[in-house]
Amino acid sequence: MRKTSKLLLTALALSLLFSGNAFAAKKSKKNSKTITVGATPEPHAAILNLLVKDMKAKGFTLKVQEFTDYVTPNEAVESGDIDANFFQHIPYMNSFNEERKYHLVSVAGVHIEPIAIYSNKIKALSELKDGAKIAIPNDPTNEGRALLLLQSAGLIKVDEKAGLTAVPADVLENPKKLKFQEIEAASLPRILPDVDAAVINGNYAITAGLTAKKDGLFIEGADSPYVNILTVKAGNEDNPAIQALVELIKSQKVKDYIEKTYPDGDVVPVF
Length: 271
What we know:
single chain; alpha/beta; D-Maltodextrin-Binding Protein, domain 2; 5-stranded mixed sheet; 22% strand
């Protein structure tokens, strides 16, 4: 009996020790001087890398981790593997939260990357033949965004009730009987030669050497609601390192960099 009591006391002590360490680790991470931010390469990671020295001057270490898809960065923020990400717009984040029951929030709106229609086979949308193959992003919000762009170009009509989350089934009018191929956004530039046209997100177009103003057949307007944001998990908004990054990412330095690097309007600052 006495031996059993000793074992129970030992187990309790170890439990308290480990839970205490876990709490300390959690507290330490929130107050850490180092943050890791996930981002797609262009222009997001490029903008963040511009701020590494400025963060250091403020007493913080900024680590930039590059991703090439639109799913992993959000999973990493929700799980706590990274502290923030910079690649998405609010409609996409909201959709992700709703589907996955995640807790992602925006802490800063930075820029817009106009989405555009590109083609290697035609020089104008009027040249599209009946039954042409059009590739569009397959993620919920960017797919709707692409269809609404095709509607603005006069090619289709989308059910108003579908809004930003429209899918091909919501297309009410399709005079040219266009055939939609739903492709992962990152792969759209690569499959461009295999389709008649593709609606490509700005960041992936830039990486592929495409310029909306020069190469785009039809470009999203500057009044787009798809502002790219710095995202964290709810509860991490007041992290001092995050607050320092928010201040820097909306600085004149970043605005000047965007306007100089993307003079054709492929990336437009919103602050």
